[in-house]
Amino acid sequence: MSEKEHRVSRRQFLNYTLTxxxxxxxxxxxxxxxxxxxxxxxxxxxxxxxxxxxxxxDITTEPKRFDYKVKQVDGxxxxxxxxxxxxxxxxxxxxxxxxxxxxxxxxxxxxNANKDHPNQFYCPCHGGRYEKDGTNIPGTPPLAPLDVYxxxxxxxxxxxxxxxxxxxxx
Length: 170
Ligand code: FES
Description:
Blueprint: H1 3-6, H2 10-42, E1 51-55, E2 64-74, E3 77-89, E4 95-98, E5 110-111, E6 121-123, E7 128-130, E8 148-154, E9 157-164
Antiparallel strand pairs: 1-9, 2-3, 3-4, 5-6, 6-7, 8-9
């Protein structure tokens, strides 16, 4: 090859330089926009992982309310959402964690809160009632049992995930 073939003309030099600088600037603009658009999709879905809620030693056969928080991501807004669960051991010794959300219109149910209906979950809004295992009592407004949290026990700690409907309405 001759020396002449290796020489870059002024026009070629400008073309290469402007293409490189233009590409660099375009990447600087496009990359943040792409990340902004894709971040919520790529981020692990919040609320899917289980959260430590209680020590197993604190759980008895009497339903007890435990309050906790889960990380909530709504678009680009992150927050700690307060949650509650009614937790107890059933006759077999299994730990049951019930959602406190009434299946009628979403009020919060309480355990043993109505002296006329002891040992039941009671909803103060319209008098909804549930058995200890969360089954709705026929003749009261709720038409489905209380949801049950996905649960896991690890190193003496109870972890709860999402509350799942059980179906089997009375
Ligand atoms: S919201 Fe609970 S009975 Fe209506």
